[in-house]
Amino acid sequence: VSQQLKEEIRRGFAGLKDPLAALLAMLENSSVWKGKGHSLGYYITTELQLWIKEHPAVPQSGIQLKKLQARVLRILSQCPANLFDPLISIYQLHTADRNYLLENVSHLYLKGDYKEAAILSIKLRLQPDQDVEKMCIPLLLQDRANVVEDYVGEYPELQSRLLQTLDSWCEPGVNIRDVTRPYQGLSRYKPEKFNHRTLSKLVFRLLDRFHLDPALCPNVVNQRHLRTLNYLFYKRFVEKTMTEENWADHVQSTVGDRRCLQGHLVELLLRHCGGRGAARWAQHWGLPTDLLPPGLAKELPELHTQERVEEATKASHYEDSKKKDYYQLPIPRENIHFLQTWEETLQCWEKLLQPGQVVGVDMECKPSFGMVGKPRVALLQMAVKDEVFLLDLPRLLEQAEVQEEKEKLPRFIQMLYSDAAITKLGYGMSGDLSSLAATCSALKDIEKQLHGVVDLLTVDKQVDGLSPEHSHEERGVRQQEKGLSLLVQHVLGKPLDKTEQLSNWEKRPLREEQILYAASDAYCLLEIYERLCKDPESFGLSSDLRESLMGKQSIKSRAKKQLNKQEALSPSGQQCQGSQLEPPCAPAPVSPREFSVVCDNMLQGLGRYLRCLGVDVRMLDNEDNHRKAAEIARQEGRVILTSGLPYQTLQSQVGEGRCFSVNCSEKAKEQALQVLKHFNVQVSLSDIFSRCQ
């Protein structure tokens, strides 16, 4: 707002006998303050708020103030959110009679203005005198969980009461429709958004946000455990990607002594393992015999001995198969060091903190299976040429706490990540560093201190095809690889064996299979990096790969670096060498309404974000084949937005510049910035939310 307008507004206030009444008269008789954004009415109101602070004699009191408060409450029921705070301050609504305020909120509620009633209650801090269930149910049915979170945000007692109410709706035998039936005439009612699964997600989000004890919600927690059990059986017996030890470990910790879960476990065992297998596992876990079908308990000793012999034979064949089909560590076992004391870690730091050193870093966390809280790092793996160090992080942090030397380990980790002379390799480093910060509070700002890091996830998106020395036929048919395993397969010829991925990494001692898996995950990063730097052109990468990768020192700033004016970006998002290609001229500016795209099915978040900015977006469904994007692009003249390997296939099926690869490790906002910059899309305020959401 111009200084001239501000001065004019203030001169107007000074010439009024009663500025407070005049402002209300203006708001009551004009519509300029309605709608989104900063209107003229908003600027006049906020200027009056500032002016009153400079003229303390202006505010009213007594009966006159009560009359003004009554009028302003009527305005608050229909004004935009940005006027709430200034009007409440100007007319001192916090000093108004509380019962009178509650009556006004109740009036809004009875009119069906549930959101407005809740927001006014939040602003006036009326929640302790209201029925949390009554206020929140309509908002949940209207898919306004964000308002509900704000409503209980500062009141732990209300948080607990709300969560207990939500949990009671998830009790076995409760029909969710019985809860929603009184509200079926509700405007914006979205029954499809209100079911046990969405309730469960909301409960866990609230538990996490407000740091509450999950024991408050036994029904929701029990449902999550049931889903975890089903998932574990799927991984073990259908997908067959989990070892027996891992599976048994997680099943036991999930079920514990909860009888209802034990009953469900027996049903799953009978379905997947048959009667003999169910009886054996029932004995192994000490399940109550009354949960088993009659007659099986008598045969247990004989079955137990026989099936252990069979399992040992299977395990032998499995080890032979692994060596043939999967990546194998090229270093001897004695070069893998498991470190549990500070003295042991000193030898590790001496080798890591050397200028010019290249370090492969990975981390393992115990799977949470959707329970509350961020994953905590249970094992930190660091690989250098010919050696791997496995740091038992929980044990080391516990020892440091006892010895009152808490800062030692975090300081060394910070030194490693902030030293530009040491190359740190990772895969999806942002997630790992977030877990590291959740494990050790002293490392909460580590992402801001990164130098010399290379996230191979960004390279993965650009790798062209398979390793030239290995074909599909050589590898044979196997379940589709993904993530780091797929990159290892492309570059080194064989994928990682991921059967230990879902191990209980907090349990000690670690099994030998876990140690080898953890060491492989870190060491393979060194081999990938070395191979790509040696022969980048074979994988469709820039010949200056080493320099371009080392330039990316911050995970968070990758998107900004890619948008830098000095960089010429190809449609794949790869940097082009200035000596080989002239930088392309920037395309003519277009508005979002003239720009139409089709988003591949792994980029639905980007699609939603672009649509909010007014872009014409179509999105593939999860089950759609990537090729459908090319069909839509050709038929409707859309640009394809994709990521990773599908780019190579899709860009050959459409015109030049009509397919763009984004970095799927970035958040939707950063991806959108990259797309808008590349295609020179100019967004104005009127474009935002101009399309139906």
TrEMBL record:
Q: Which InterPro entries match?
A: 3'-5'_exonuclease_dom, Exonuclease_MUT-7-like, Mut-7_DEDDy_dom, Mut7-C_RNAse_dom, RNaseH-like_sf, RNaseH_sf
Q: Does the keyword S-adenosyl-L-methionine apply?
A: no
Return the Polar residues bias intervals: 565-580
Q: Name one Pfam family in it.
A: DNA_pol_A_exo1
Location of the 3'-5' exonuclease domain: 336-537
| One example GO MF annotation | nucleic acid binding
A GO biological-process term: nucleobase-containing compound metabolic process
> What keywords were assigned to this record?
Exonuclease, Hydrolase, Nuclease
According to the UniProt record, where is the region Disordered?
562-583
Q: What is this protein called?
A: MUT7 Exonuclease
> Quick one: which gene encodes this?
Exd3
